[in-house]
Amino acid sequence: MFLRDTALLSPSGMSLKSIGLLYPNLPLEKIDLSKKDIENMESFYLENPDRFVQYAIQDAKIVLWHALEVQNSHYLFSKKYTIPVTLSSLASSYLETELLPEGKYHPPTLNGLISMRNIPKVLTPSGVELSGDLHEYIDYYLGSYHGGRNESYIYGIVKGEFHDYDLPGAYPTAMSMIDYPN
Amino acid sequence: MFGFEKILKSYTALKVRFEFPHTVKYPNLPVRLDFSTVIFPLKGETFCTGNEFLLAYRLGCQIEIVGGVWIPFSSIEPITRSSNSVKERYVREPLLTQIIMDFTGELSFFDDLKISRSSETSNYSELERKLNDGVVNQTQFFSVVEKVLRERIKYPKGSYMNLLYKFIANAGIGQMARGLNQKTRYDLRTNSQKPIPTGSLVSPLYAG
Question: The complex's ipTM?
Answer without folding.
Answer: 0.84
